[in-house]
Design goal:
Layout lengths: L7 E2 L4 E5 L6 E6 L3 E5 L5 H15 L3 E5 L5 H4 L10 E4 H22 L4 H8 L8 E3 L2 E5 L4 E6 L9 E5 L4 E5 L18 H10 L4 E4 L7 H21 L15 H17 L16
Parallel strand pairs: 4-5, 5-6, 6-7, 11-12
Antiparallel strand pairs: 1-2, 2-3, 3-4, 8-9, 9-10, 10-11
The structure holds zinc ion.
């Protein structure tokens, strides 16, 4: 249950803590006045462990929590931070309200054989809703460091939020970027995902911390954008809306490709996103 490594320094002023058994990144950014914790782990117990690690770092400094999206491994630890304001996209709040109990049940079920203790902790997770819903974007002044919370439009989910840290040249991407495995497609919008990655790249970050795995640079994100672009093209071809790309597989298993196709079909029938950004966001990074 304990992450073996504790905090790892990622660039200047950023600490990363890795959950277990789901290797989710929980990231701490410390300003002069306020500290920011991005994502809170999978269960209340994991959240409490994270909280103890945070308190050891911060002493009594004010802590604000951000959830990048509503998947359980990023936000079910929120209940360990009752004194903190919790920011998330408005879509994340709505999704968590709608899917939280089902996610808890399904996640517990999926871990039952492999890790029954973790499954029991998941089952007992108390789901709390983020207190500060963000529409579009919000700017937090941490003291010496600003954090821009930016809703990127459809991608890994329909409510992904990234945290841009202009002074540190860094961006916390949630699962819009994944390093330790191929991008997860279950709730995705495969046709829009490459556009969301394009928006991230337009911000010019030097350092990107993914939802899972090691920190990466711009090149990695550009490659993932290209990969998602090819996946979108493949989906359109399969659905009769473009040139058929034969033998495409990329980094995805046949099962993942079937998921991508189903999601692309749903994306097309869902129509345009009501919250899609219309252009690249203002360039905040130097
Ligand atoms: Zn996710």
């Amino acid at each position: 249950m304990s992450p073996a490594q504790g905090w790892q320094a990622v660039g200047v002023g950023i600490l990363r803590w890795v959950g277990s058994p789901v290797d989710v990144n929980c990231t701490l950014v410390r300003g002069d006045d306020v500290a920011l914790l991005v994502d809170s782990g999978s269960t209340r117990e994991e959240g409490m462990e994270l909280r103890r690690a945070v308190e050891k770092e911060l002493g009594g400094q004010e802590l604000v929590v951000v959830n990048t999206h509503a998947h359980y491994d990023h936000c079910f630890g929120d209940s360990a931070f009752p004194e903190s304001a919790i920011y998330a996209s408005a879509g994340c709040v709505a999704t968590l309200r709608q899917t939280g109990p089902a996610q808890r049940r399904e996640a517990a079920e999926s871990w039952r054989d492999e890790d029954p203790d973790f499954a029991a902790r998941l089952e007992a997770a108390r789901i709390v809703l983020p207190t500060q819903p963000v529409e579009g974007e919000a700017l937090l002044d941490l003291g010496g460091i600003k954090a821009q919370l930016l809703v990127t439009g459809r991608g890994h989910t329909d409510h992904d939020l990234v945290v841009v840290l202009p002074e540190l040249g860094a961006l916390l991407a949630g699962d819009l970027v994944e390093e330790s495995g191929p991008p997860a497609l279950e709730d995705s919008y495969p046709l829009s995902w490459p556009l969301a990655l394009g928006r991230i790249l337009a911000l010019g970050p030097q350092l990107v911390i993914p939802g899972h795995g090691q920190e990466v640079g711009r090149d990695f994100v550009a490659r993932q954008r290209d990969q998602m672009d090819q996946l979108a093209e493949w989906c359109l071809g399969e659905l009769g809306l473009g040139t058929r790309v034969r033998d495409y597989r990329g980094a995805f298993t046949p099962a993942a490709l079937r998921t991508a196709l189903e999601r692309a079909q749903q994306e097309l029938s869902a129509g345009p996103s009501p919250t899609a950004p219309t252009g690249p966001p203002e360039d905040l990074l130097p």
